[in-house]
Amino acid sequence: MTRGTDPRDQPALQGIAAHYEAGRLDEADAAAIAFLSQGLPRERELPALLWRGFIADRRGDTAAARDFFEAARQIDRRNPQLLAQLGALHDRMGDSAKAESCYREALRQEPRLPIAHYNLGVVLQRKRDFAGARRAYEAAVLHEPQLHPAWLNLGNVFRDLKDDASAKDCYRRALEIEPRFALAHHALGVLAQVHRQSDAAIACFRAALASDPTHLESWLDLAETLHRIGDKPGAMAALEEAAQFHPGHATLEFKRAVLAGEQAAAMPDAVVEKIFDGLAGEFDAHLVGRLGYAIPAQLRAMLADWLAARRKVSVLDLGCGTGLFGLEVVAYASRLVGIDLSARMVEQSRQRNVYSELHAMSIDSYLSSHADRFDLIVATDVLVYVGALEALFASVCAHLAPGGRFAFSTESPASLAEGFVLLPTGRYAHSAAYVQSLAQANGLKVVAQDPAIIRTEANVPIDGFVFVLERGE
């Protein structure tokens, strides 16, 4: 990483390297500190500063590693590999902007540096700049054709760009380079799963697990595909085997409960996030166009007189998705805050330009970390992912202003007389009696309880209710 080392310093630097390679990090750091204490010219200090950075990084102290590399950068400003390393540290600390700046400067100095192209692609892909990410990954594999993670990520970008054929080619190229690359096998399986090629998907997931038996996503997707083709015992067996590697994992436990027809208190955040991250790009077309979802408009109609009388209200949209309810209520809102677990959904909402604030976080996290009160709190098609509602109702009530309203939809089949139940779809149904009892327990008045068709599923209407509850003045 340095242009040259003074021959006089070689023995000391080799000693640092020997300690580092042997895992003797304390000895390596002590030797580097001793080297730096000699009062040498700054240029000669550079290798020891880099070693201290590597040592700190290996210890897990990313901030210290960044500081050492920043100090090294002050000495050597034309070192693209150092810039790429520094960019990676900034990225791991959550500063994508600085990371991107480092990668771009590294590439300005050395346009053929594969790792800088690759890491830049990661940053751009996370920003959903798919065109830019594609260019970055293509440059990475141009200069390093054997960089199989870049082929995988390039395939993922093509998936985002709706070019599945090119994605498949990239995944296969990654496997030509590294046949036991579990992530590429899994990616091919997901692609086959999307195209309803169940046998091919199962084969890919099993290949991924043969390469890495601990890969959780492959176990989950294998179980889902087996269940989809009617092999419930096979799906259960896959989940049981996965549990050997991930005992007590919330997502595994939830999936097992769904298949076994057992109860579970709530859908894990990771499951919800995966569902909606995957749907973000076509959510409106899927939910509104294909499933006949019209709850936001129905809720706004139920609230119309109250909204008109209030003129301007502060609104908290729990599980805002792509902002469908935000569009309905923005004309009445003095403040409109959207919360969603899926960062991709939040990005879709942001593009509508109707929300005052958007937060990519769980509902529980937001409500527990904010003390604001709102005139209207809304949860459309959200409670179907929560089982027991006691904690949510208590938190919502604490955030309602006097006279404020809580409006939401529930899935409620006519056969459900009380409580809640986890359905075979993995969604929760709540009885009207259960909701009414929670309202009473939290001092909320049921202002409206209208029957609703929540959506259609396989051309079958799904029954439910839209509730409006009010807190006393």
Task: Furnish the topology, listing elements before pairings.
Elements: H1 10-21, H2 25-36, H3 42-58, H4 62-75, H5 80-92, H6 96-109, H7 114-126, H8 130-143, H9 148-160, H10 164-177, H11 182-194, H12 198-211, H13 216-228, H14 232-245, H15 250-260, H16 269-279, H17 283-290, H18 295-310, E1 313-318, H19 324-329, E2 333-340, H20 343-352, E3 357-360, H21 363-369, E4 374-379, H22 390-398, E5 400-411, E6 420-422, E7 428-430, H23 432-441, E8 444-457, E9 460-471
Parallel strand pairs: 1-2, 1-4, 2-3, 4-5
Antiparallel strand pairs: 5-9, 6-7, 8-9
Helix pairs in contact: 1-2, 1-3, 2-3, 3-4, 4-5, 5-6, 5-7, 6-7, 7-8, 8-9, 9-10, 10-11, 11-12, 11-13, 12-13, 13-14, 14-15
Q: What keywords describe this structure?
A:
473 residues, alpha/beta, Rossmann fold, two-stranded antiparallel sheet, 23 helices, 9 strands, 14% strand
Distance from N terminus to C terminus (CA atoms, Å) equals 68 Å
Oligomer: single chain
Within CATH, the superfamily of the largest domain carries the name Tetratricopeptide repeat domain
Sequence of strands across the biggest β-sheet: 3-2-1-4-5-9-8
Biggest β-sheet strands, sense, barrel: 7 strands, mixed
Number of helices: 23
Low-confidence stretches: 283-292
Total beta strands? 9
What structural category do the secondary elements indicate?
A: alpha/beta
How many domain units? 2
Mean pLDDT: 88
* Anisotropy-based shape: globular
Task: Kindly describe this structure.
The protein is an alpha/beta fold and 473 residues long. The chain has two domains: 254 residues, Serine Threonine Protein Phosphatase 5, Tetratricopeptide repeat (Alpha Horseshoe), CATH 1.25.40.10; 195 residues, Vaccinia Virus protein VP39 (Rossmann fold, 3-Layer(aba) Sandwich), CATH 3.40.50. The chain has 23 helices and nine strands. A seven-stranded mixed beta sheet has the order 3-2-1-4-5-9-8, with helices on both faces. Strands 6-7 form a two-stranded antiparallel ribbon. Helix 22 links the parallel strand 4 and strand 5. The protein is globular, with a radius of gyration of 27 Å.
